[in-house]
Amino acid sequence: MRQVLLIISGCVKLLQVGANGHEVMLRLSGPGELIGIAESHIRTHNSTARAQQPSTALAWDISTFEALFERHAFLRRNMLGMLIHHLNDMHERFREISTERVAARLSSQIIRMMHQVGRQVNGEVEISISREELAQLVGTTLFTVSRLLSDWDRQGIVVARREVVSVRNLRALADLSETAGQLPLK
């Protein structure tokens, strides 16, 4: 059954299977985000959502959601805003892949994820994500992400553990980004 999900807590990753049968992570979604809104208007199912950590979500089957969508203009406006946000995020990531060094792309992606799905743990912001998933999101190799995270760990910028990255020094991480002035540092 295809559904639209509203994430209440936790983190969900959106996956797609390539022609070679390998999964690739498209994005992480956190509290307040809808998953499956594009799929609700596309008849072919092309992505899968999987909880990245324990999560809670509200779920509607596609037909119920479409009926709500047709009846309520505010829902259409909110969905349009979310879709535009996702499209802008994809445009930004594509531009970064095309024009920036890997270190800048990785630091920008970690900062974005801090705001999307980061959790405060012992004074640091923790992101549950593997190095392989980070590599997919920034368009590089697992080796390159591992090398950069290890370097940044030694410098005290992040703490890189298995399937978790904790940000220790946000200012230093932002300084690694070529677009540091454009990133939100809440």
Q: Outline of this structure?
A:
By secondary structure, this protein is an alpha+beta fold. It contains 6 helices and 10 strands, in the order E-E-E-E-E-E-H-H-H-E-E-H-H-E-E-H.
Task: Explain what you see.
This protein has 186 residues and is of the alpha+beta class. It is built from 6 helices and 10 strands; from the N terminus they run ββββββαααββααββα. The chain has helices spanning 62-71, 73-99, 102-117, 131-138, 142-154, 170-175; strands at residues 3-9, 12-17, 23-29, 34-35, 48-51, 56-61, 119-121, 124-128, 158-161, 164-167. The strands form 3 sheets. It has a 4-stranded antiparallel beta sheet. A hairpin with a 2-residue loop joins β7 (119-121) and β8. α3 (102-117) packs across α4 (131-138) and α4 crosses α5 (142-154). It is globular. It starts with a strand and ends in an 11-residue tail after the last helix.
List keywords for this structure.
186 residues, alpha+beta, 4-stranded antiparallel β-sheet, 3-stranded antiparallel β-sheet
Helicity range = 40-55%
Separate helix tally: 6
User: Could you say which structural class the secondary elements and strand pairing correspond to?
Assistant: alpha+beta
Q: How do the strands line up in the largest sheet?
A: 7-8-10-9
Helices, strands, pairings?
Elements: E1 3-9, E2 12-17, E3 23-29, E4 34-35, E5 48-51, E6 56-61, H1 62-71, H2 73-99, H3 102-117, E7 119-121, E8 124-128, H4 131-138, H5 142-154, E9 158-161, E10 164-167, H6 170-175
Antiparallel strand pairs: 1-4, 1-6, 2-3, 2-5, 7-8, 8-10, 9-10
Helix pairs in contact: 3-4, 4-5
